[in-house]
Write a structure and sequence with these properties.
The protein is α+β, with helices and mostly antiparallel strands. Helix content is 35%, strand content 22%. The protein has helices at 5-33, 55-62, 88-96, 100-103, 109-126, 137-149, 151-155, 160-180, 188-203, 208-225, 237-257, 265-278, 297-304, 375-382, 439-442; strands at 65-68, 71-74, 316-317, 322-327, 330-335, 354-358, 361-365, 390-392, 398-400, 410-412, 417-423, 429-435, 445-452, 458-466, 478-486, 491-496, 499-503, 509-513, 520-526, 534-545, 550-558. The strands form four sheets. Strands 3, 4, 5, 6, 7, 8, 15, 19 and 20 form a nine-stranded antiparallel beta sheet that branches. Strands 11-12-13-14-21-18-17-16 form an eight-stranded antiparallel beta sheet, with no helix packed on it. Strands 1-2 form a two-stranded antiparallel sheet. A hairpin with a 5-residue loop joins strand 11 and strand 12. The longest helix has 29 residues, at 5-33. The mean pLDDT is 90.
Length: 559
């Protein structure tokens, strides 16, 4: 497939912008290294960390083994920063020091001494170099929050020399974030930086005017990145949970110290909660769209216990562009939007994909995003074929740029989605949507209809490719495949060539059927598992254009 001129220009523009940002960050770091830095003499407070802790990880770290990012590093008594690290993801986790929260589970003198030694090694080896993974903006922001939140672990029984070195390094990193914040694209990293700076402003001795200034900057970032319906502009459900995990402790820190809260902080938190509940399936986990991956239940519950909004989830998130169909204990969540290239570095080409849950089980899902995996798996997970929707000629509805400078942005593809949501005469809930992701390349629009009946035990689907008025489709024969990715916990039992039973471990069954068509059972891979990618299965219906342009299928709860 040849790249269109518009895509080349877009990639060039993004690449030039990224070059400027890198130069800006490098210049800011060089100026900072030459600037005398006042060192605060103490910390005022240690903000709470709501993320889950694991005593096993604490024990392993104390023994010199670091189980991070799906890998285990055995240091044999050496500093982890003096041995070869197994992966980039591992290095990011190690340098971020987010693992310090696990040490709270074993807050003995020996554990605190060990954590202190690792921090001291990092300060010595990487504290002023401002290059490498340890100084990537997202890693620095996460490290600042971790050092602040777990300062009680690091400073318990610390000698005066370490205390001063720690405070000096922390102050340097905070100053670094402040200098580079304006050189960061509008994404989760910049939001995390603004949260880290606001947290540092109230946790370290400073002037009231400085606290107000950082709060105002956080306000502007929240107003820009958190949409009116509570979703995040990345369209990733997990981004909202990550934001709450940082914003809730920040809110409580402001309150505990008696500072005026940033004006947008509480309204933003209240707006995110309904959007987060929108993406919860019947089993309590989050839907797997646009980079979402496995969510530890403890993290989700630690956030939801502060939810005072209540009420049923919305039927749609109009700014984030998702729809939710619910009846009784059956839930469908459908992606009806696309991501702007500027905010699409982790976005997926899954327009009009859906997920289905019933009872306490997820039946039809998307493949999700691997939490810690190589570039190949991440690229596969972002493709249209990894989502429960239609793929034409094994081509994604939006494409991933291969530019090293611009980054893996998502190129349209999909640039327009029309949506019609209404109840029919019998009260059944119907969603009809059309996207143009295959129009320029192949001349077809893709239309999907999904209907859920009032009792939640029957779902009807209709997938269609058609040529819009005034357009001409490709003359070549094209193969279209409609995929339905099955959650690994579900067992498939073939009933006949056109129907398959999906059975959960608790005995609940759904019958998938496509009258007059062959329903294939293919091997699959599920990326969003806590333990890493694992084998699964998918149902697939294949047809060839222009002989066949549409298919119908149905899901019915079975006895």
């Amino acid at each position: 497939m040849t790249m269109r001129l518009a895509d080349r220009r877009r990639i060039l523009a993004f690449g030039m912008r990224e070059i400027w940002r890198r130069m800006c960050r490098r210049s800011a770091g060089m100026r900072l290294a030459l600037t005398p830095l006042p060192v605060p003499d103490r910390l005022i407070v240690a903000p709470t960390d709501l993320r889950s802790i694991d005593p096993f990880i604490a024990e392993e770290i104390l023994e010199g083994r670091y189980p991070l990012a799906g890998r285990v590093l055995e240091t044999f008594g050496h500093s982890p920063f003096q041995v070869e690290l197994p992966s980039k993801a591992f290095a990011e986790r190690l340098h971020s020091f987010a693992w310090l929260r696990h040490v709270r589970a074993n807050k003995t003198e020996e554990a605190c001494d060990h954590a202190r030694d690792v921090v001291a090694d990092w300060i010595t080896l990487h504290g002023r170099r401002q290059r490498g993974i340890g100084w990537e903006p997202s890693v620095v922001a996460e490290r600042v929050v971790a050092w602040l939140s777990h300062s009680t672990v690091l400073l318990q029984g610390a000698e005066a020399g370490f205390y001063r070195r720690f405070m000096k390094s922390l102050a340097f990193q905070v100053r670094y974030l402040r200098k580079i914040a304006g050189c960061i694209p509008a994404d989760e990293t910049r939001l995390r930086i603004r949260i880290a700076l606001a947290m540092a402003s109230v946790s370290m001795p400073t002037r009231a005017a400085f606290i107000r200034r950082e709060g105002a900057r956080l306000d502007r970032e929240l107003e820009f990145q958190i949409l009116a319906d509570g979703g995040h502009l990345s369209r990733n459900p997990r981004s909202m949970l990550d934001a709450l995990l940082d914003l809730l402790p920040l809110r409580q820190t402001y309150i505990n110290l008696g500072h005026d809260l940033p004006q947008k902080l509480i309204p933003t938190i209240d707006r995110i909660y309904p959007a987060l509940r929108f993406f919860r399936h019947q089993d309590g986990d989050l839907a797997l769209f646009n980079g979402a991956t496995a969510t530890p239940a403890s993290e989700l519950m630690s956030v939801l216990r502060y939810d005072e909004s209540g009420g049923k989830p919305f039927k749609a998130l109009p700014h984030m562009n998702y729809h939710r169909l619910t009846a009784e204990d059956t839930t469908l969540i459908v992606d009806t939007g696309w991501s702007e290239p500027e905010f699409s570095r982790t976005a997926h080409a899954g327009c009009l994909a859906f997920e289905l849950s019933s009872g306490r089980n997820r039946f039809i899902v998307n493949s999700g995003s691997p939490k810690f995996s190589g570039r190949g798996h991440r690229k596969m997970a972002r493709s249209t074929a990894a989502h429960s929707t239609l793929t034409l000629s094994e081509t994604s509805s939006s494409r991933i740029a291969k530019s090293k400078l611009a980054g893996p942005i998502l190129l349209p593809g999909v640039s327009d989605v029309t949506i019609d949501r209404r109840d029919d005469a019998h009260g059944n809930d119907w969603l009809r949507a059309t996207h143009d992701g295959y129009l320029k390349e192949f001349g077809y629009l893709y239309h999907r209809e999904i209907g859920l009946n009032t009792t939640g035990n029957k779902i009807k689907g209709h997938d269609r490719l058609f040529v819009p008025d005034g357009e001409e489709a490709s003359d070549e024969r094209l193969v279209a495949v409609v995929r339905f990715h099955i959650h690994p916990a579900i067992r498939l039992v073939r009933r006949d060539p056109e129907s398959v039973v999906m059975q959960a471990s608790d005995g609940e069954k759904w019958l998938f059927s496509a009258p007059g068509l062959e329903v294939m059972i293919d091997e699959d891979i599920f990326f969003a598992d806590v333990s890493g990618p694992r084998p699964s299965q998918q149902l697939a219906i294949e047809f060839t254009l222009p002989e066949v342009t549409e298919i119908r299928w149905m899901l019915r709860r079975a006895d």
